[in-house]
Amino acid sequence: MFKNAPTPQEFKEGEDAVIVCDVVSSLPPTIIWKHKGRDVILKKDVRFIVLSNNYLQIRGIKKTDEGTYRCEGRILARGEINFKDIQVIVNVPPTVQARQSIVNATANLGQSVTLVCDADGFPEPTMSWTKDGEPIENEEEDDEKHIFSDDSSELTIRNVDKNDEAEYVCIAENKAGEQDASIHLKVFAKPKITYVENQTAMELEEQVTLTCEASGDPIPSITWRTSTRNISSEEKTLDGHMVVRSHARVSSLTLKSIQYTDAGEYICTASNTIGQDSQSMYLEVQYAPKLQGPVAVYTWEGNQVNITCEVFAYPSATISWFRDGQLLPSSNYSNIKIYNTPSASYLEVTPDSENDFGNYNCTAVNRIGQESLEFILVQADTPSSPSIDRVEPYSSTAQVQFDEPEATGGVPILKYKAEWKSLGEEAWHSKWYDAKEANMEGIVTIMGLKPETRYAVRLAALNGKGLGEISAATEFKTQPVRKTLCSD
C-alpha cells in the first residue's frame, strides 16, 4: 500500500520541507497526517499544508518540528486503515564565532599562540582551518608548527615568527551547510639590522653615504652614533658636513667634504617597542700624510736628542729624513740614527760640533700624496738668572720667593742653587733644590742662620747644558729669638 515513504527524511532548518508519502490503492485513500500521536491540525499552524498529492509540507521547518510523523491511509469503503511512521530530521546549519578577531604575538621568542573558534549546529559540525586561503592540514604527523585540539576548534601555532602573520579562517561544516569566521594574527618583531656596508673614501672627496636597513614590526626608528658621540636623526651641521635622512626602514648618513678625522666606526641602532638591534660599519678615509712635532728641538754638543716626526696617513706612509738635501743616514753623518714606528719616526742626533745644529727635513709619502716638515736643531744655552721677589726671614731660617728665569736655554731647568753668606763673610754657603719642588710654590728655604744677623742671598738655575747666570744678591736680616714668658 505504501509505495514511496522513506524514513528518515532529512531537511535543512528554515527551508520548506515536503514529507513524501505515496499510498497506492485500487480505491482512492484518505490520507491523514499525525505528529506525536495527534492529528496535524492545519488551521492551527498555517505552516503545515497537505499538498494535492497528499504530501505534508512544512514551511520554514524548525528544529522543534523534528520527530516522528505518521502517514495514515484510510479506505472508508472497505474499512481499511494502514500507516507508515516517518522519522523527520531537521539539520541545523553551523554557526561559528572566533573568540578574538585579532590576536597579537611577538616573533622569535619561542612563543606559542592559540586561535579558538566556537561552533554550533546539527549534526555537530566538523572544523577546518585555512591560512591566507590555503588549507592547514590536520593529518601531518611531522607538522610541529600547527597543533589541533581533538575537535579542531583550537589551532595552536608554535614558535611564532613573522611568516605566521596572516588571516586565519576557521570553517564549521555539516550536511546543512557551512560558516566561517576570521582571525587576524598580528606578529610583532624585534628590530634586526639587515644591511650595513663598510665604505672607503678619499679626503676632500665630495661626499660618502653610509646606509643602514632594518626589519621589525612596528617599523623601527634608526639612530646613528660614533664611538664618541650621538648623531641626531635630523642632524644637519651648519656647514652641511653631516646629514641624516630616514625613510621607513632605511636610514642614511651622508658626510660631505670628507675629512680624515671622519674615519672610524659608525653604529646604527634600530629600535621599536619590542626591542633594538645595533650593527657597526666602518668608514675608511684615505689621505695624504700629515706631519706633526715640535719644530724646534734643543740640545748641546755631546748630548743625544730625538727629533720626533709624527705621521698620520692612510695608506701608511714611507718616511725619509734629509739634511741639506742629503738623505739620512749617510756616511757624512755617522752620529745620526733613525727609528721608525707605525705612527712616528725618530731622528736620533748626538751633536759633535756646531755643524750638527740647523735644519732637518722629515718627508712622508704614500700613494695619495706627500708632506714635508722642517725641524730646527738648536744649540741649547744655560738658563738666565732667576729673579728674587722678596725674602721672608725668621730667627734661623729664611724663605726666598723668586720668579723662574725668563730664558730656560731651550731645555728644562733641573735644579736651583741658593748661595748665602753673612755680611762681612767671604765664603758663600750653598744648597741645591729640585726644580719641580721649588717651581710649585716659587720658594726655597735656607736654614742654619744666626738670629739678628744680616745676610745676602742669590740664586742660579741649572739645566742640562749647565749652571746659568747667578742673580744679584738680596740682603735681609734675621729675626731675634722669641722669648717665652713663664708664669711663677
Automatic annotation (TrEMBL):
This is Neural cell adhesion molecule 1. It holds the Pfam family Ig_3. The gene is Ncam1. One of its GO terms (molecular function) is heparin binding. Residues 1-71, 94-184, 191-286, 289-374 form the Ig-like domain. GO terms for cellular component: plasma membrane. PANTHER family: NEPHRIN. It is a single-pass type I membrane protein. This protein is a cell adhesion molecule involved in neuron-neuron adhesion, neurite fasciculation, outgrowth of neurites, etc. One of its GO terms (biological process) is cell adhesion. Residues 382-481 form the Fibronectin type-III domain. It comes from the Eukaryota. Interacts with MDK. Found in a complex with SLC39A6, SLC39A10 and with NCAM1; this complex controls NCAM1 phosphorylation and integration into focal adhesion complexes during epithelial-tomesenchymal transition. Interacts with synaptic plasticity regulator PANTS. CDD domains: FN3, Ig, IgI_3_NCAM-1, IgI_NCAM-1. InterPro entries: Cell_adhesion_signaling, FN3_dom, FN3_sf, Ig-like_dom, Ig-like_dom_sf, Ig-like_fold, Ig_I-set, Ig_sub. It is found in: Cell membrane. Keywords: Cell adhesion, Cell membrane, Disulfide bond, Glycoprotein, Heparin-binding, Immunoglobulin domain, Membrane, Repeat, Signal, Transmembrane, Transmembrane helix. Its main location: membrane. It comes from Rattus norvegicus.
